[in-house]
Amino acid sequence: MYPDFPEGAPCWADARLPRVEAAKRFYGDLFGWTFDEGAGAERGYYTGAYSDDRAVAALAPAPAGAVPAWTVHFAVGDAYAAADRVVAAGGRIAAGPVSEGALATVALAAGPDRAAFGLWQPGSHQGFERTGVPGAFCRAELRTPDPALSDSFYESVFGYAAQDPAPGLRTWHLAAPARRAPGGPTAPRTARRRTTGAPARFLAHFGAADPEATCAAAVRLGGRVVAAARATREGAVAVLADDQGAVFAVREPDG
């Protein structure tokens, strides 16, 4: 049984990479993930990743010439209405909405800051089955050089309320509380951080009991450390790139 995620909650993440088999080796060793046999050509060879038999992410082949990247998907009740809100608020729809059979209706979007993200209207696949623990998704973070533009857009699209726990950092809260199945994950949080000299992008954070050790493991597996582990109010955080260049973060779990 999948949990329900409220409107605007990060509910799924997938990576598009040139070599899925290599990615399975990298993330399988790094996080202990296991993988299903993958879908066929009709669903883009989409391969589910699991932690303790719970769905935590997916991998898929990247289109020719595409930059390897993780995409964070946000839960919506109506993907078509959400796509209209994206466009009305100054963003764009890159693909979809399209129905993936009974699993979900999805769209790929970008804000006026050009940060890419997904819209996920759940069907039988409602999203993460585990969050906030080692090897599972913990939060989405938007890094942007134009905070005012981003705040206006995402608050319009998802109805976020915001607070500022530290200079340069804003945490977006959901208008509706998370519905939680017994023993299931709570809705991960979304944060916005001011950056300079880099394009806007969403950064997927995954739990790691020891981020420094995870950095060392990533390097051993052919990845690299983008930003070394640093202490924060909520535990250590590091930014990594996998062996194909897709960037993600690891952090001490939220709970």
From TrEMBL:
PROSITE patterns: VOC. Residues 9-122 form the VOC domain. It holds the Pfam family Glyoxalase. It comes from the Bacteria. This is VOC family protein. It comes from Streptomyces beihaiensis.
